[in-house]
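In the previous lecture we treated proteins in isolation. Real proteins rarely work alone, and many bind small molecules. This record shows how such a complex is specified: first the sequence, then the SMILES for guanosine-5'-triphosphate.
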Amino acid sequence: MDFQRAPLEPAPAPSALSDSFAAAALGMTIFLACIAGTLSRPVEFLASFWPANALMLGLFMRRPGLARDPKAWVASACAFVFSSLLMGDSAAAAIWLSFANLAGVVAGWQFFHGIDRNTVLLRGTRSALFLLCGCIVQAAGESIVGFPATSFLFGGTSFSAFFMWFSSALMCSMLILPIVLSAPTLGQVRQFSLQECVARFKLVHLAPLLALIACETVAMLLGGPGSLVFGVPALIWCALRYSLFSVSLLCLAVGVLKSYTATLGLITYTPDHLVDAISLRVGITLLSLGPLAVASFQSVRNELLHKLHHAARHDALTGVLGRNTFIEQCAHWLQTLGLEQHSAAVLMIDLDNFKGVNDTHGHAAGDELLREFTRLVMLHLRPSDLLGRMGGEEFALMLPNVSREEAREVAERLCDATRRHVFTFNDEVPLHVTVSIGVVHQDAPPRHAMIEQLLREADHALYQAKGTGRNRVVMSAHAVY
Ligand SMILES: Nc1nc2c(ncn2[C@@H]2O[C@H](COP(=O)(O)OP(=O)(O)OP(=O)(O)O)[C@@H](O)[C@H]2O)c(=O)[nH]1
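The predicted 3D structure, ligand included, written as tokens:
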């Protein structure tokens, strides 16, 4: 499914102000990236590391609405031209080079535009392969337009100019794009809790990173052509343990390190060392492909496992705990917190004459009623309360640390709220339903108290509520010993 071709999701329509702000922010980001890239220029040749184009393409892929906004293109074009002029290029060179940069982004955007969004955002099993192809297309786009300018400006053959540009663009895209695509959203950053992170941290989590540092140190000390891949096992280990974003950052760090240490070994990124420079850049590009493929595969797998785990533990219709999970969690509470002599109440809740709803309004309406009823109940619960669907139209609720009176009050409130609530299905006739509730309360549940016993007592009370006319709460007189 992940490689199925489908248009990217349309972005929500932002306001004109936020549109302009986004375009201006993009222009400023591109400008700064261009300045940073220009600083990596060897004398009399193109920059050896140029992150601006991949950054622009990545932002477009993350926010497709931006790519459809002409203001974003104008802001980026201005950023390319002004930064080039600022760094001393002639007007003709600035315009030509900027045009080449934009041509690469257009080519990359055209490639990724029709691909399934999960695949584009590196959450598909074939994402890494699509990423490589997209980077090749982007690099080809900019180098085809830009290489005549290079040989014109800096001399050398057209052949060397093309391949120098192509290999540099390919490496930059492969190192920068995954970072932009997997970077956490603002919402995720806001949710991030440093305290939680520190609490979960174990020294063993650092092992893959330390292994990578060790491998790269040995690679630097030993040198030689094979040293390019010394870090691969450690990078794969990182890909198995860390998030895709972290792995992308590590690939960038390793790529930049390799690129830099090669210059100490006297490779220069000019046509003087054409073959070595191209070979190294393609090597770095392919080096990060493996870890990125593993990391994106891992993120797909983790997401699926999370969904599977959630589906196994929750009721598919209402989203509350399933029967087994409810019993498991209540048992856990009794075994742990119950030891500290807390009190607890268990409520069995059953909609009255639900069969009539199904018969009169249809099964779909019955389903919708169950969903809405669940939402209604949830409004009256504390975060520590547990709600589970025991089957059909029967729910169980565990209220930890409540007195007998409080438990009765909660049950009465639920009964009352259900009676008053108007259920509607697809604008049809409004419907009123009632609920019967059986409650068992226990002061200081004994250690051996079984949730099954409590449920049985609550069920017995529910049976009495049904037998005495429904739409009521019955408190069990029994306690579990
Ligand atoms: N729509 C829908 N109906 C369900 C679901 N699960 C069980 N039912 C129906 O719920 C109805 C329960 O009927 P009964 O056990 O007779 O209960 P009741 O009609 O509520 O009567 P009392 O409990 O005695 O008040 C049956 O018709 C089941 O088919 C479900 O997931 N969705």
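Summary for your notes: The two ends are 55 Å apart (CA to CA). The chain is about 65% helix and 5% strand.
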